[in-house]
Amino acid sequence: MISNHPVLTDYVTGRPVLDVGPEANRQAVEKFLVEYKGYDKSDILVDMPLSLDIGGKPYDTRLDLVVRVDGNPFMVIRCVAGSLDSREREVIYAARVAGKIPMPVAVVSDGRTALVFDAIRRKPSGEGLEAIPSPKEARKIAVFAKVQPISAERLEKEKIIFRSYDIQNVNFAENGCCGD
Question: Which class for 109: exposed (0-12), middle (13-18), buried (19 or more C-beta within 10 A)?
Fold first, then answer.
């Protein structure tokens, strides 16, 4: 793929990525997670593939960042270039449908600030990058979250909600950036 877009080196993976849309914002969030919050790069999954069966039909997408704590998915982060408020439901439902059990925390960030949500209760839990839990805080949240699987009927509805928001995203680098 030939592109006129500049190329960045992904902070976590070291791979080249096109500098389009919110990519620079994602790089800022990745750096913040490692350098200020104390996550190891190996705890952060970049562009995590997500395959859902919705009404008997496959739906494939990617989650910007999934942060693991002690090897378990804990938090989904959606990196955006525009309004944070408009991505609230998308990121909350991503956290709820991406695994066998919901992830406790969902975050939307533009690299300068963030909205943090309790994905289990589907409610705001903090604002600003500092509100993103550190690994130590995440362990405490995980203990008290008492996360249970979502019923099959409810899960199907939540996958539809997630897809209705996610399908509007344009992934410019879908075919790979730079010869991966």
Answer: buried
Strands, DSSP E only, in the chain? 7-9, 16-18, 44-54, 57-69, 72-79, 105-109, 114-118, 123-127
For residue 90, give the nearest of 163, 3, 16, 14 by alpha carbon. 163
Residue 85 has pLDDT above 50, yes or no: yes
Name the pTM for this structure: 0.91
pLDDT digits (tens, 9 = 90+) for 113-164: 999 999 999 999 999 999 999 999 999 998 888 889 999 999 999 999 999 9
Spans of all domains in the chain: 7-166
Q: Which CATH code of 3.90.1150.10, 3.30.420.40, 3.90.1570.30, 3.40.50.2300 fits the domain covering 7-166?
A: 3.90.1570.30
DSSP state of 138: H
Q: Token pair for residue 12?
A: 């976590």
Distant-in-sequence contacts of 12-21, Cβ < 8 A, 24+ apart:
12/41, 12/44, 12/46, 13/46, 15/177, 15/178, 15/180, 16/177, 16/178, 16/180, 17/173, 17/177, 17/178, 18/172, 18/173, 18/177, 18/178, 20/172, 20/173, 21/81, 21/170, 21/172
Label the pairing between strands 16-18 and 105-109. unpaired
